[in-house]
Design goal:
Length: 405
């Protein structure tokens, strides 16, 4: 029998904002985008009491809750927290699926006994999330992701619920079908026309009826009504062969100082990730894409492995300066490969200059870990800082969020 945990942050964007600004705590807060036709992406539980919902425009929200505080969302901050959260999860199992920006599934079938059981893991995760980020989350535990997600949904906010196999039918019996993950309003309306309102009714409906109405999905729907779900977790492979970042630039560039600034930003992202995972590498590779979309890579091997932003940057710039650019650039990528685990980073370097550099990077990493990527960076890069205005609800660390099970 599998044991799956679903971890879902409570009012995620709003909670992150309330944490970042104490004046927002305990208050009705709605997170919005920066455009003038923006809508509410989420709202604090204080705002939910007034009926403020995701998707409402600011006028509708204000009408329901006149003292609501609107905050323009900061995607970098949420993505940063999401990445940090996954580190908390992987301490309990390597089988983690980051499903969306604030939801993850953990398969603890083979590891829960090491930590005192599934509930103990859930409580520990809640504690860690609270102490590290100051935000609440809800944990659902069950034998599959459908029921784990349901367990979390029905115990929000700040909850923990284990739906054990013996409890499944009593939980589902009178539950409205649209409470199930993957059954939206439209599908619920179609089921309603067949006289099916609850999961209990869905689970007991004749398979032939569902098949004739919904085709092959009909069978899956019946199983969902019974709390059966065979979708496995989609777990990202671990053990990177290289650490790399690339970015399509906001506009095509040509000037050396622009190329330098973006290469420095990318080198910092690569260096920081390498340092975080205690990796060093000795092959630096630069990828360039011209305005015409022609793309090519050049690499260079250095004598000693490094995770130092400036060594990566200097090598990357040497590579770029050795290329006779034929067109303006629309994408730059920097990667570090030939990876090995770095030696004990606390060991004192013999040369004082190296010690200073190490301490500087460590202090910068510490600040950026705590407050988000690029809170502190090199002056040359800061001049080129820009930030996207909105985040897609489909955002997830790898690819697009799936909306059905
Ligand atoms: P959800 O987990 O759906 O919502 P939530 O975390 O705000 O609240 P809950 O306590 O009910 O889990 O979404 C996670 C974040 O994703 C949310 O904080 C904002 C963002 N989001 C969008 O940007 N657009 C959307 O349409 C939805 C639903 C969420
Ligand atoms: Mg959430």
């Amino acid at each position: 029998m599998n044991i799956i945990l679903c971890i879902d942050m409570d009012a995620f964007f709003a909670s992150v904002e309330q944490q970042a600004n104490p004046k927002l705590r305990g208050k009705p807060v709605a997170v919005i985008g920066s455009g003038h036709r923006t809508v509410v992406t989420t709202r604090s539980y204080e705002a939910r009491k007034f009926g403020v919902k995701t998707g409402m425009n600011v006028y509708e929200a204000k009408k329901l809750c006149p003292h609501i505080i609107f905050v323009v969302g900061d995607n970098d901050k949420y993505a940063h927290t999401c990445r940090e959260l996954s580190e908390i999860y992987t301490a309990f199992t390597p089988d983690v699926e980051i499903y969306s920006i604030d939801e993850a599934f953990l398969d603890v079938t083979t590891t829960h006994h090491l930590f005192g059981g599934p509930e103990a893991i859930g409580l520990e995760i809640k504690k860690k999330v609270k102490s590290k980020f100051g935000i609440n989350c809800t944990v659902g535990i069950a034998t599959n992701i459908l029921l784990a997600k349901l367990a979390s949904d029905i115990s929000k906010p700040d909850g923990l619920r284990w739906i054990k196999p013996g409890d499944t039918s009593s939980v589902l019996e009178n539950l409205a079908v649209e409470e199930l993950w993957g059954i939206g309003r439209k599908l619920a309306e179609k089921l309603d026309l067949l006289g099916i309102k609850t999961c209990g009714e869905l689970g007991n409906a004749p398979a032939s009826l569902l098949r004739s109405k919904f085709g092959i999905t009909g069978e899956a729907l019946k199983m969902m009504g019974q709390g059966i779900c065979h979708r496995p977790l989609i777990v990202k492979e671990s053990g990177p062969k290289s650490v790399g970042h690339s970015m399509t630039l906001p506009y095509d560039i040509w000037k050396e100082k622009d190329i330098e600034a973006y290469t420095l930003k990318l080198s910092e992202m690569v260096g920081r990730r390498a340092r975080k995972y205690r990796l060093t590498g000795n092959v630096i590779c630069v990828t360039l894409r011209y305005k015409s979309f022609e793309t090519f890579s050049r690499q260079s091997k250095i004598k000693q492995r490094t995770g130092d932003t400036h060594e990566i940057y200097n090598t990357a710039m040497k590579i770029i300066k050795g290329i006779k650019l034929r067109d303006s650039i629309r994408l730059i990528g920097v990667s570090l490969s030939g990876l090995a685990e770095s030696e004990n980073p606390e060991q004192l370097p013999l040369i004082q200059e190296y010690a200073r550099k190490r301490d500087l990077l460590k202090a910068m990493d510490h600040i950026n870990d705590r407050f988000g990527d690029f809170t502190i960076s090199w002056a040359r890069y800061m001049l080129h800082r820009s930030r996207p205005a909105v985040i897609s609800p489909a955002w997830r660390p790898q690819g697009i969020r799936r909306t059905t099970v």
